[in-house]
Amino acid sequence: MPSVKAPKAGSSARAASQPYTMPLSPPASSASSSGSMHLLENLSQLAQTMYNKMMNSMPEGHIYTQTALTELVGISDPLRLMRLIQENMNMGLVKMLQQGDELCYQAIKKEDAEKIQAMTKDEAMVYSYIESSGTEGIWTKTIKAKTNLHQSVVQRCLKSLESKRYIKNIKSVKYPTRKIYMLASLQPSIDVTGGPWFTDSELDTEFISSLLSIIFRYVMSESIPTEDDKPLVPAPTSKKTNRKFTKNEKKEEIVYDQLSYPANYSGYPSQTQIHEFVQTSGITTVELAQSDIKALLDVLIYDGKIETIDHGMTYRAILGATADDETSAEASEYDSIWSYGPFL
Asked: For 231-249, what is each residue's pLDDT tens digit?
C-alpha cells in the first residue's frame, strides 16, 4: 500500500497514442565482437551523415517522413535515399514506422542499436514487438502469435531479455491473469496499472480512505475559523427552551456553539490549493494529478461531507460532518497526524 504519513510542521498547503512500429530486421548474426561496438564505422560516409543529422537535428525520438529526410540530407533521388536508410536499418540505427498509410523513420541511439545487435535473431524479434507495445505492454500469447515462434523459444527469449534487464513483467488491472511484458525503461500506463488507487493490481481501499479523511480534515480546517480569526459570525443551532418569547421571536433559542465565516468570505480552498497541499505537505509519496484529487473531492461531496461554493470553484466542509475514522480505532492515529500547526 502507498504510504500516508503526517506532514511536517510548517509545510505549505498515473499518453499520446503510440505509432505502429514495424519490427526491426533482426541482425544477420549474433553479436560478438567489436563490430557491434563500432556500428557507425561500418556505414558509408553518407549513411553516417544521415544518421548524425537524424539524431542531432531534432529532439530524441523524432519521426521523419521520407520527404523530411530528403530535405534533411539534401538527396532528391529516392532510390539513393532508400539505400542510405537501408544501410542504417541493417545496423539497427534506424527503424521504420508506419503512421497511417505513410512509412516514416526514427533514429535509434547507438547504445540501443548495439544492444539489439548483440541479441540472437529470435531475441531481437521478440524484443521488437515488446518495444512496439510502448507503455501498454504486450501479452506473451500475442508475442507468440506475431513472431510465429514456438512457446518454448518465446519463453527462452523472454527469460534472457529479462535477465539482462532489457524488459520487465508487469501486472495489468484489466487482465490480472495475463503475463505482460514491456521495456524495462518505461512506466506502464494508467490503463495498465489502474493509477494511484491500485497496489499490486488490487484496489487499495485503505489508501483511498486515508486520503479521503486527510483531505476532508484539511477542507474542514479551512472552513471553520478559530477564535482569533476576524470577522466571525456565530453559527446558530437550535434547542428547545421554556423561556417566554417576544412577539417577533421564534420558539427556539439560538446557541452560539460554533463559529463560521461570514457569507462574503473568499478564503475557502480551491481544487488547485488542495492538490498543492497534498503534493507538498508530505502526507504521501504517491504522485497524484489534479484529476485524482477531483475524484476524491467528488466522493466527499457524494458522502455529504463537503460542498462546492463560488460556482464550483472552491470547497467547504458541511457543518456537523465528521471524518469516517473519528469513531474508529484509528482515530487517535489521525489525530496525531493533524495535531500540528493550524490543525491544533
From this structure: 444 444 444 444 444 445 4
